[in-house]
Each structure stands twice: as C-alpha cells, then as structure tokens.
Amino acid sequence: MKHFLEELGDLKQRLLEMGGLVESAIYRSIVAVVEKDADQAQQVLKNEARINQMEIEIDDLATRLLALQQPMATDLRFLTVAIKINNDLERMGDLAVNIVERALSLMQEPVIRPAIDIPQMAKLTESMVHKSLDAFVRSDVELARAVLLSDDAVDDLRDGIYEELIDFMQESSDQVRPGVNLMFVARNLERVADHATNIAEDVLFLVQGVEVRHHANLKP
Amino acid sequence: MKHFLEELGDLKQRLLEMGGLVESAIYRSIVAVVEKDADQAQQVLKNEARINQMEIEIDDLATRLLALQQPMATDLRFLTVAIKINNDLERMGDLAVNIVERALSLMQEPVIRPAIDIPQMAKLTESMVHKSLDAFVRSDVELARAVLLSDDAVDDLRDGIYEELIDFMQESSDQVRPGVNLMFVARNLERVADHATNIAEDVLFLVQGVEVRHHANLKP
Q: Does A67 lie at the interface with B, CB-CB under 8 angstroms?
C-alpha cells in the first residue's frame, strides 16, 4: 500500500513538472508574438518533444497504477483525473506550438499596429493555467472556482480582439495576413484557457466527488 | 464475468450511438454553412445537450467498470480507450456547434463567392470520423491506418482554403468578415479530423497493444 501511495505522489510530481514545461511554453510563445523574439520561438519548438514524451510516460504510469491493483474510489478518481489533466496539458503544449507558428509568420510581415489586448488576454490565460495546477496540488476548491470565473473574462477579451482585428483587416489589404495570424493567436489562447477550465472542473470532481457531476455514480 | 462482458458490450454500443449523433451534427453543420440552412443549424444546437449528457453517462459507465473489479490487461486497455474516444466524440460535438455559430453569422452576410473546397474538406473529414468509429467496432487495423493517411490530405485542403480565403479578404473589405467565418469553419473541420485521427491511433493501441506506443508498459 505504501508503494502505491508513493507512486501516486510520483504521478502528481510528474504532472506538475509537465505543467511547468507547458506554462513556460505558453509564456515564451506570447513573447515570440509580442516581441517578435525568434529565440523564444525556437525554445518552444525544442521543448515540444519533451512535453510529448512526458505525456506518454505519465499516461503509462497512470494506466499501470490502474492495472496494478483495484484502487479505492478516491484513488480511482485521482487516476482518471490525472489521465485527463495530462491530456489537457499536452494539448496546451500543442497550442503553444501553434502560437509559435503564427509568431514566426508574423515576424515576416510588416508590424502595422500591435494587437493591444493580446498580452492582457495572455496574462489572464497564463494565470488560469497556473491556478488550475495549484488548485490540483492543494485540492483547493476556491482556487478551482476562481479559474472557472475567469473563463468568461477570457471570452470577452477574445471577442474584443476579434472585432479589433476585423476592423484592422478591413482598413487595408496589407493587414489581412497579419490580422489572420493574430486572430489565430487569440483563438489558441482561448483554447488554452478552455483546457485550464477543464482542469479546474476535474479538481472540483476530484475534491468534491460525485456531488459535482450529478450523474456520476462510482458505486457498482 | 458474463455480467462484465455484457457491460463492455453496452459501453461499445453507447459509444457508437454517441458517434452517430456526432456524425450527424457535423454533417448538418456543414449543410448549414454551405446551403445557409437555418433549420439544420438549429437541429445541431438542439442535439448538443444530448451529446453532452451521453458523454457524462459513458464516462461514468467506463469509470464504474474500472472500479468494479480488477480488469484484465485487454479490458483495461479497452476501458481507457473508451474514455478517450468518448472525450474525442464530445469535442467533435462542440466543434460542430462552433461551425454552426459561424454558419449563423454567414447567413447574415452577403454571399460573395462560395468557398469551393470546404464541402470537399467536410466530406473527407466526415469519412474519417465514420471510418475511425468503424475501425473501433471491428478492431480493423487497416481502416484505422487509412484514417491516419487521410489526415495529411485534410491539412493540405485546409492550407489551400486558407490561402484562397486570404486572397478573397484582400480583394475587398466586405469580404473580411465572411472570410474570417469560413476560415474558422475550415479550422474547426481540421480539428474534427484531428480527433478522428486520435480515435484511429487509439484503435491501433487497442488492437496491437504495447507495440504501437513504444513506451507503454502495462505490466506492473
């Protein structure tokens, strides 16, 4: 039993390590967009393989723990949630790569006007990612709820950015291509925020159990 | 043991039922875009709640079966794959809703030129979804591999559509807003194809076991 608990601790530790890599990838991808920083962009591309590798290892560890013995209801919930969080983190890593690809295109296009709200949207999204992982580590229900509340603010920022970019593209045909790239940056950030929201929901499920999801029924 | 096998059969049946709903949502969403058909759009929005409800029920059933007894390695793989396929299907349902939202915007904008390759991209994507589910039901490795091969063709179609739409938006400022909407339709279709690819990869993992994923290790 002690062995099993140690393995659960190891799983948590690895998820946090992966979370750190993903947070850093998102941060760098936005620096690459806003400051046209090619080094940061390359760093994200370089770290992608490591994130993908970690996802496979974490998935295998969680699956092995599921197989190892019949886990108690609480551990079972933890393991299924760990598999989901792992998947969310890996997708966030992919989204950071998508943002970097847009950043690399933007570096070859004239800067016409900075997309003012993208850094603000990025800051809020990064804070959601960080809080959702903190909520997971500390089983902190309040923090998880704070993440869910931020999701609407991210959607509002995105809507504002879209409208601003459409105006921008309508002004001149030169601005269509950079406008499209910035639009996809905002779209990818919004999806990162959605994954942070998924993690926060999973934390609520983990801590509060069946009450959160009305139709969950863990008893046979 | 018979009871457990019956439950596994039930789980498979429900996943297929959900797959049918999702396939129909994707099909209708594209009809809504291409034919500006508001009835089909409404139908997709109406069915969304049912797809979300099915996801929760399937997730609960799979989690309950994991808890019920210590499953054999094969059943364990089946259950973890079922949870992933369920998640992919639910996301495809969300993507169909995203496409419908774009369709509803497009209905209020002048049709300037049809986006010729979107129906073709949709047809290929729908066929990937159908084949990936067929591959799952029949444990058909060849069919799963065919899905993986189609993913590149979908990406090529998307690239062509993006370039065509950028030209289109550069031609006139009236075309920016419908161009953006059609771009997001293509982007959502691409993501549907990515989820079908995930399902095909899961089928390969399910049928071929550890060989597909080099780092998998199901033995304790």
A: yes
**Over the stretch A59-104, which tens digit does the pLDDT of each residue have?**
889 888 887 766 677 788 888 889 889 999 999 999 999 999 999 9
Predicted structure pTM score: 0.86
- The count of other CB atoms within 10 Å of the CB of residue A84 is 20
Q: Which residues contact A156 (CB under 8 A, 6 or more apart)?
A: none
Q: Which two tokens stand for residue A148?
A: 């869910």
Residue B34 lies in a domain: yes
- Chain A residues inside the 8 Å CB shell of B70: 67, 69-70
> Is A76 a domain residue?
yes
What's the total number of domains in chain B? 1
Nearest by Cα to A179 from A166, A190, A163, A191: A166
With an 8 Å Cβ cutoff, is B98 touching chain A?
A: no
CA atoms of B182 and B167, how far apart (whole Å): 13
Q: Is residue B18 part of a domain?
A: yes
B46: amino acid identity, one letter: K
Find the CATH number of the domain harbouring B139. 1.20.58.220
Does B216 reside within a domain?
no
Among chain B residues, the shortest Cα distance to A65 is held by: B220
Looking at residue B78, its amino acid is: F
Residue A145 to residues A86, A157, B53, B69, Cα–Cα distance (Å): 20, 20, 22, 33
